[in-house]
Amino acid sequence: MSMSCxxxxxxxxxxxxxxxxxxxxxxxxxxxxxxxxxxxxNLRICSSCRRTLVKQPV
Length: 58
Fold this sequence. Notes:
By secondary structure, the chain is an alpha+beta fold. The chain contains one helix and four strands, in the order ββββα.
């Protein structure tokens, strides 16, 4: 499965590790994806989309 949200397509970003001597090394920041079943379908959605779905009336 890909590392992206099924609703908003949020995916991994590039960031830097910064050491004490200010040397930078590239790393990845992954989204906070969670499995959720909606209408019988298993989705991987980010936590911000999940909070939005909870607020919306059914």
